[in-house]
Design a protein that fits this description.
Length: 170
């Protein structure tokens, strides 16, 4: 936006430069034996150079700056959409792991521990259940980390604009 505003200012200056310049001057002094006083008025008339090239260049620069601003805004909007989609997927993954996968692994482990205590399950089955539970817990930690990174990316792209920040509470 700053580039666009600067280009607009240069265009306004180039347009103003097309108009004739008016100068007023005064002179007072002594020459030989007389006091001299003079008033000078000069008008710069661009008869052969209408100074249109400067305006044309400034218009082109303004147009390029505005197009660049639109391109950057589109890129930011696309990046925000991608980051938002990733954050939602990460949040849903955390929710599924917390609500389904980890409780299922915990129930299986509890059941196998009970069976092992009464002699109905062997040690290998119990160790497999513990390993599955540990993998589920690690998957949940990794999903939470991915979710936090997704939120950080979204916040960075949103530049702390809380008015337009989506609600992605888990």
């Amino acid at each position: 936006r700053a580039r666009s505003a600067a280009a607009d200012a240069r265009l306004a200056a180039a347009r103003a430069d097309r108009w004739p310049g008016l100068r007023l001057g005064a002179l007072r002094g002594r020459e030989a034996d007389a006091d001299v006083q003079a008033l000078q008025l000069s008008l710069e008339l661009p008869l052969f150079d209408r100074r249109g090239a400067g305006v044309d260049r400034a218009r082109a620069e303004t147009s390029r700056a505005r197009e660049e601003q639109r391109r950057l805004e589109r890129e930011l909007a696309d990046a925000l959409d991608d980051a938002l989609a990733h954050a939602r997927l990460a949040r849903d993954h955390v929710t599924r792991l917390e609500a389904e996968v980890l409780p299922r692994a915990r129930r299986a482990l509890d059941a196998l521990e009970t069976e092992y205590r009464v002699g109905e399950a062997d040690l290998v089955a119990l160790l497999d259940a513990r390993r599955a539970h540990a993998r589920s817990a690690l998957a949940l930690l990794a999903a939470r980390l991915d979710y936090r990174f997704a939120l950080a990316d979204l916040d960075a792209l949103n530049a702390g604009d809380d008015d337009h920040a989506p609600d992605l509470a888990p």
